[in-house]
Amino acid sequence: MTTWMIKITQQGDYGKASALGLLVVAVLLVFATFFLTATRERGGGRRGAGRTGKRGVRA
After folding, report:
1. Is 58 helix (H, G, I), strand (E, B) or coil?
2. What is the pLDDT at residue 20?
3. Phi, psi (deg, nearest 5) at residue 48
4. Distance between CA atoms of 2 and 31, rounded to whole angstroms?
5. Under a CB-based contact definition with an 8 Å cutoff, are residues 59 and 51 in contact?
6. CA distance 26 to 22
7. With contact defined as beta carbons under 8 Å apart, do 8 and 16 qualify?
8. Chain-centre distance for alpha carbon 8
9. What is the rounded distance in angstroms from the CA atom of residue 12 to the CA atom of residue 25?
10. Do 20 and 5 touch, CB atoms closer than 8 A?
11. Are 22 and 1 in contact (CB under 8 A)?
């Protein structure tokens, strides 16, 4: 789709190329949202990554 957008830009149809660019951004937002919700751990974050001792020093 981005290659098509570049071809249209080179032909001088900037309005259509801009519309395609916005469509690409919308598709990327949908995929990013899906990816983030699918990979989010249940229970609030990355527990167990980089555990520290009582004084904040890694054990």
Report:
1. strand
2. 92
3. 90, -10
4. 16
5. yes
6. 6
7. yes
8. 25
9. 21
10. yes
11. no
